[in-house]
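For the sake of transparency, this paper describes our internal protein records without simplification. The tokens are whole numbers drawn from a learned vocabulary of local backbone shapes. One such record is reproduced below, unchanged from the form in which we store it.

. . .
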Amino acid sequence: MKTILFFGNSLTAGYGLMASQAYPSLIQKQLEQEGYTYKVINAGLSGDTTAGGVYRIERWLEQPIDIMVLALGANDGLRGIPTRETTYNLQEIIDKVKHKYPDVKVILAGMEIPDIVPGRYAAEFRKLFRELATQNNVVFLPFLLEGVVGMRHLNLPDGVHPNAEGQKVLAKHIWGVLKDLL
């Protein structure tokens, strides 16, 4: 059985929801419905940054990984961590996974922060994901939260984390790029 590792933060973990409502679980159901024999691992950790991910990835490399969906960076953006640091950390995670599993297929989920953030940071932050995807020749999903961010009916009361309906939208975005790799 092949394995898909979803490596992310609270968006992946399904913060505030049952595990079965998080988008990795929804992807597992979709895979089963379509007759694919993949095991989905939800390695989402609420509050995680790319720096945390660099240290955390090691324990997930003890089992073979065929596909990795890398969905970290939102918390870096919220904390204003310099984009070069976020870029370095994401590259480090990709390198560690590819070193252990050279044939792994990677999907990089892009993140954006609102343009209301002053200065060039929002633009630089958005750009770093696209550049990393191009440099590493990995599949790129431009914005994981497309169509969910700012939509009250798709988010928990905190306005930040997708609710069960919002998670379905995230699953649809991921499935759109994942199905071609199966």
Summary: The CA atoms of residues 65 and 139 lie 16 Å apart. The mean pLDDT is 96. The first strand starts at residue 2 and ends at 8.
